[in-house]
């Protein structure tokens, strides 16, 4: 047996790793909120802030990587702990990409400034943002509390995200067909919708990893994947 | 010192890990080629094959993860070997996402079938595919041969990918403005262009990791990132 203070310090490190992921998750949620707000209000200052904040999210991913590698190297964890540390690396990687999506939302706001925008264009984007924010929050909750049931719910709700995306895609196409002046702004909004849909996918990834950590089983079978492939827009 | 046969077997495992990544890289390159071919020729059978093949790419990612975790658990590698094993996990994750992009290209071909398509719409997509395929190939070469100079070249060429994407984006918008019947097919092609641009980003990620493994330094400084952020479409 290792002396008590070493075990305690190892636990401290595991807790610190979990806290750093939670902190990164918090920053990513703020980035989604700010990225969308910059888009909906054409707020150039908030857009710039969101783009710069993404650098901090990238730095946090690197920090989590380094913490994980250092823990593995020094502590030589057992298989189950090792699996959870590797999962932390994967979750941080998903969060980093969600941060990228938020940055892209902010960037789009700089592009659509001055274009022919109508408030109705935005409704779908606003609703989708609320839904994917919930997905990210609940996937991180499922991950931090090892809640397999919560993870399943996040995965099931991904169909809702996809349905909302498909409906928004069609809606934006109709605006484009109505008036050629709508083509450029609505094209940018289509990409925003796609970024939000991808954020939903990352939430599902995190939930699937949470489920696997808790149960040792893969949540999505090959059959489900094929079905999802065929349904998705 | 560990007995000779154990050292040799550890090397065998490192080689096997590298080979598995090379194999996954090969499958991903085929997926990009087939996904684009399915798109350009509206080949439904090839599209279905590409979608199904993505499942194998996902399985390979899981296999690489398991190999890496098992090696770390049993061999307790030193810091430098550990860093290279963790990098293998990241590279596999990038390749898995490139596989997803290829699947999305294949899916789009099923969606644009029967729409008002003109051969000129396709030129840009064809050229971009050639460029990003080269980027993926050369990033994997730089990774497998630890070639820092090659990695820098891949990263520098990402600006070319981005420029090609921006130009294609504008070109497709003009077709959409010319004739409303072009809106739906060209919107799908816009997303294809975006998928290709993202494949280019993943090639850059792989090259950056190759560079870091070889030199211990980050290739992209914060300043470069900010510049890229502002230039990109």
Describe this structure as you would to a colleague.
2 copies of one chain form a homodimer. The first copy, chain A, is mainly alpha-helical and 233 residues long. Chain A has one domain (4-231): Phosphate transport system protein phou homolog 2, domain 2 (Methane Monooxygenase Hydroxylase, Chain G, domain 1). The first copy, chain A, has 7 helices and no strands. Chain A has helices spanning 4-41, 44-75, 79-112, 119-144, 148-178, 183-215, 222-231. Chain A is elongated. Chain A starts with a helix and ends with a helix. Mean pLDDT of chain A is 89; it is low at 1-5 and 229-233. At the A-B interface, helix 2, helix 3, helix 5, helix 6 and helix 7 of A face helix 2, helix 3, helix 5, helix 6 and helix 7 of B.
Produce a short descriptive summary.
Two copies of one chain form a homodimer. With 233 residues, chain A is an all-alpha fold. Chain A is 88% helix and 0% strand.
């Amino acid at each position: 047996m290792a002396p008590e203070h070493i075990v305690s310090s190892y636990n401290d490190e595991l807790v610190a790793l979990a806290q750093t992921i939670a902190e990164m998750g918090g920053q990513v949620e703020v980035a989604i909120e700010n990225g969308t707000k910059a888009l909906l209000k054409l707020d150039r200052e908030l857009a710039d802030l969101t783009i710069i904040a993404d650098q901090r999210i990238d730095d946090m991913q690197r920090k989590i990587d380094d913490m994980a590698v250092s823990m593995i190297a020094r502590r030589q964890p057992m298989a189950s702990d090792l699996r959870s540390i590797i999962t932390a690396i994967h979750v941080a990687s998903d969060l980093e990409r969600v941060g990228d999506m938020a940055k892209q939302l902010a960037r789009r706001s700089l592009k659509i400034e001055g274009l022919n925008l109508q408030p109705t264009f935005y409704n779908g984007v606003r609703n989708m943002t609320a839904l994917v924010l919930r997905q990210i929050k609940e996937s991180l909750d499922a991950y931090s509390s090892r809640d397999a049931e919560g993870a399943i719910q996040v995965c099931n709700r991904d169909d809702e995200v996809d349905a909302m995306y498909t409906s928004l895609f069609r809606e934006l196409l109709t605006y484009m067909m109505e008036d050629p002046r709508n083509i450029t702004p609505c094209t940018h909004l289509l990409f925003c919708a796609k970024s939000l849909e991808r954020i939903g996918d990352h939430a599902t990834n995190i939930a699937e990893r949470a489920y696997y950590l808790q149960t040792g089983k893969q949540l999505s079978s090959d059959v489900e994947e094929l079905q999802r492939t065929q349904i998705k827009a």
